[in-house]
């Protein structure tokens, strides 16, 4: 196998390892968040993003970029949360905003503890360590940037 093929193969292995680690995290987080809080990881990320803003509100473009979703996908996610009173969606000719309501803020605060607990599990931290080693070996991560 020539050098170019080996590099390509190592990048494929890295991408697959990243996918597997993400899938394992997601499965455990979805299960725990669903059981204890009635939301999934995507809901948590959305609520957490809003909770991290200065006034618990943000424009739809900003939230979509922060959660890695298109505007339409974000709105499909927002509607059910709006129906159960966790967020409000305000449309204005000039500005479309998502607002975290009090029940949503209370939920995300409680859910943070669950996320912290799940992410601290030895099986998941071991997965992260393996992934970190692979990233460093492949030179995709510059260790000096991690400080």
Q: How would you portray this structure in words?
A:
By secondary structure, the protein is mainly alpha-helical. The protein has six helices and three strands. The chain has helices at 3-37, 41-51, 60-67, 71-83, 102-119, 122-137; strands at 57-59, 87-91, 96-100. A three-stranded antiparallel beta sheet has the order 1-3-2. The longest helix has 35 residues, at 3-37. The radius of gyration is 19 Å and the shape is globular. The model is unreliable at 143-147 (pLDDT under 50).
Write the layout of secondary structure elements.
Blueprint: H1 3-37, H2 41-51, E1 57-59, H3 60-67, H4 71-83, E2 87-91, E3 96-100, H5 102-119, H6 122-137
Antiparallel strand pairs: 1-3, 2-3
Helix pairs in contact: 1-5, 1-6, 2-5, 3-4
Can you give the helix content as a percent range?
55-70%
Radius of gyration: 19 Å
Shape: globular
Beta fraction: 5-15%
Q: What is the strand tally? A: 3
Going across the biggest sheet, name each strand in turn: 1-3-2
- Biggest β-sheet description: 3 strands, antiparallel
Ranges where pLDDT stays below 50 over 5 or more residues in a row are 143-147
Quick recap:
This protein has 147 residues and is mainly alpha-helical. The chain has helices at residues 3-37, 41-51, 60-67, 71-83, 102-119, 122-137, and strands at residues 57-59, 87-91, 96-100. Helix 1 (3-37) crosses helix 5, helix 2 (41-51) crosses helix 5 (102-119) and helix 3 (60-67) packs across helix 4 (71-83).
């Amino acid at each position: 196998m020539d050098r170019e093929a080996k590099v390509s193969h190592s990048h494929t292995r890295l991408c697959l390892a990243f996918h597997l680690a993400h899938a394992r995290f997601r499965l455990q987080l979805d299960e725990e968040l669903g059981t204890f809080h009635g939301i999934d990881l995507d809901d948590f990320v959305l609520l957490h993003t809003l909770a991290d803003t200065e006034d618990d509100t943000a424009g739809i473009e900003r939230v979509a970029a922060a959660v890695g979703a298109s505007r339409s996908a974000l709105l499909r996610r927002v509607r059910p949360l709006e129906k159960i009173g966790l967020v409000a969606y305000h449309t204005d000719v000039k500005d479309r905003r998502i607002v975290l309501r009090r029940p949503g803020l209370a939920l995300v605060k409680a859910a943070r503890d669950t996320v912290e607990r799940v992410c601290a599990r030895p099986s998941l931290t071991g997965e992260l360590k393996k992934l970190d080693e692979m990233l460093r070996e492949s030179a995709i991560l510059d260790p000096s940037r991690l400080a």
